[in-house]
Design goal:
It comes from Rhodoferax lacus. This protein has helices at 35-44, 59-71, 83-87, 89-98, 109-124, 152-165, 181-190, 209-217, 234-237, 253-265, 291-296, 302-308, 325-339, 349-357, 363-377, 401-420, 425-432, 436-445; strands spanning 5-11, 28-32, 49-54, 77-81, 99-104, 171-174, 199-203, 242-246, 267-269, 276-278, 282-287, 311-314, 346-347, 382-383. The protein is an alpha/beta fold. It folds into 3 domains: 5-131, 3-Layer(aba) Sandwich (Rossmann fold); 144-316, Rossmann fold (3-Layer(aba) Sandwich); 319-445, Helicase, Ruva Protein, domain 3 (Orthogonal Bundle). The strands form 4 sheets. It has a 5-stranded parallel beta sheet. A 5-stranded parallel beta sheet has the order 7-8-11-6-12. Helix 14 crosses helix 18, helix 16 packs across helix 17 and helix 17 crosses helix 18 (436-445). 36% of the residues are buried. Bound molecules: adenosine-5'-triphosphate. Adenosine-5'-triphosphate binds next to helix 7 and helix 15.
Length: 450
């Protein structure tokens, strides 16, 4: 059998030494210092594994590397990136697109060697080419994931979910409370090759700090008082699947070290044990706060942030996509109607207007809660703003003669369009050239009932 070999392409990175001393004996190592030389060498030679060391790079470098790795995608590439490179979007795209695994510099030598060996085993199985995204997944189709909304920001979110789902690197989801971060994490899992394996969620803010270590990493019998038998932690329970860590900013600093180690080594050690266990789990983390600020205050490890933040996703607030309120409200209305015995027809136009005017600090969760409440409280056939616990500000204001004429014309046009379309709001809105949400708002403004 030919000896195992690694081509090291070292670009502008001073911290990383030749990995020779960590490699198992018998590996051949060739090092080049630029992409052109790498191309020349790869034209006439094959290597078991590629190792790309990236320091500070320009967009042109990124392009050249992209071409190189695209051209030699049959080789599994392991990356080592400086913190500076990790901050660069182009470099992050390289990770997603091409890397089998990646490390941050300063690199832990033995860990890097383990990565190279894993890559070699992977290449041996002939799977390196299959690292690429499957084209069928790139269409923005989320299968049956119920992420409701048709606003441009939600469509973009769906596209991002599909893109990141197939890539085996951590994801960090940002978003206000109740905006749908866990839903997004679940959608990523369901669209990934891990879909058939467990999705395990933990809220780092909800579990007492003293218990998180055992909860995440598990424990051995006798590790502490009350540990009567061995217990798997959540990471182990998610084997083959996804671990969702909500409110990652609340994770204590000591545990951040352990999590970082797990992300780099893919092994865990149960509390009370000294044996590392291999675990294959993808981590998706979420936070409502800007972790950069926590880093600045010394409450969050910078290296962990970079490790988690390779694929950042931002979930929009509900107030930034008010055009989705109509769809969301009716979706939940239908769902809860099915659960409830009493018949309610719909939201009244004043209720639609009130929902449109509200700022939704609690986002979709608040919308759900208000609709639930309204469906219990409502005494008529139509839900009112009062049922929702909302206030409907009138749009009547002081008007001049021209304003009055416009107002009357608008009111007439809405009446005509509704009458001409048998009171069907969708068709009436289309005729008027406005969205359904705008029609509801205008109906509220003119006191036209739905
Ligand atoms: N676009 C959406 N379509 C349908 N349901 C949604 C949408 N966004 C959020 N939800 C629902 O809103 C509720 C809150 O969402 P979720 O728990 O995912 O929010 P979160 O951002 O993780 O909240 P927190 O930060 O408080 O944990 C859930 O019931 C979720 O199913």
């Amino acid at each position: 059998m030919p000896p195992k070999s690694v081509l090291v392409v070292s670009l502008e990175i001073a911290e990383v030494e030749m990995p020779t001393e960590w490699l198992p004996s018998g590996w051949k190592v060739l090092r080049v210092m630029d992409v052109c030389s790498a191309r020349e060498v790869l034209t006439d030679n094959t290597f078991t594994v590629g190792l790309l060391l990236l320091g500070s790079v320009t967009p042109r470098d990124v392009e050249a590397i992209d071409d190189l790795l695209e051209w030699r995608q049959s080789i599994p590439w392991v990356g080592v990136l400086s913190p500076l490179a990790l901050r660069d979007e182009g470099c992050r795209r390289l990770i997603v697109k091409h890397f089998f695994e990646f490390h941050m510099s300063p690199v832990d030598g033995p860990l890097l060697a383990q990565s190279l060996e894993r890559a070699e085993r992977y290449a041996e199985k002939g799977e390196a080419g299959s690292l690429k995204n499957s084209p069928s997944k790139c269409a923005g189709d989320l299968g049956d994931m119920s992420i409701i909304g048709d606003s441009p920001v939600i469509r973009e979110l769906r596209r991002q979910i599909v893109k990141v789902a197939t890539v085996n690197v951590p994801v960090l989801i940002w978003g206000e409370s109740g905006s749908g971060k866990e839903l997004v994490a679940h959608a990523i899992h369901k669209n990934s090759p891990r879909a058939e394996k467990p999705f395990v969620a933990m809220n780092c803010g909800a579990v007492p700090a003293s218990l998180i270590q055992a909860e995440l990493f598990g424990y051995e019998r006798g590790a502490f008082t009350g540990a009567l038998k061995d217990k798997k932690g959540l990471i182990e329970s998610a084997e083959g699947g996804t671990l969702f860590l909500d409110e990652i900013g609340d994770l204590a600093l000591e545990l951040q070290v352990n999590l970082l180690r797990f992300l780099q080594e893919r092994t865990i050690v149960r509390v009370g044990s000294s044996h590392p266990l291999d675990v294959d789990v993808r981590v998706i983390a979420a936070s409502h706060m800007q972790l950069e600020e926590a880093v600045r205050l010394g409450r969050f490890r910078e290296d962990l942030l970079y490790r988690l933040n390779v694929l950042p996703i931002t979930v929009p607030t509900l107030r930034d996509r008010k055009e989705d309120i109509d769809l969301l409200a009716h979706y939940f209305f239908k769902r809860f109607s099915a659960e409830k015995g009493r018949r309610l027809d719909d939201f009244g136009s004043r209720a639609m207007l009130a929902m449109y005017q509200h700022d939704w600090p609690g986002n979709v969760r608040e919308l759900i809660n208000r609709i639930r409440r309204a469906m219990v409280m409502s005494e008529g056939h139509l839900i009112t703003p009062e049922d929702l616990g909302l206030h409907c500000a009138s749009e009547f204001g002081p008007r001049d003669a021209l304003g009055d004429a416009r107002f009357r014309a608008e009111c007439e046009a809405i009446h005509d369009s509704l009458a001409g379309n048998g009171n069907n709001k969708t068709r009436a809105a289309r005729d008027l050239g406005v969205s359904r949400m705008t029609l509801y708002r205008l109906m509220g403004k003119h006191g036209i009932s739905a």
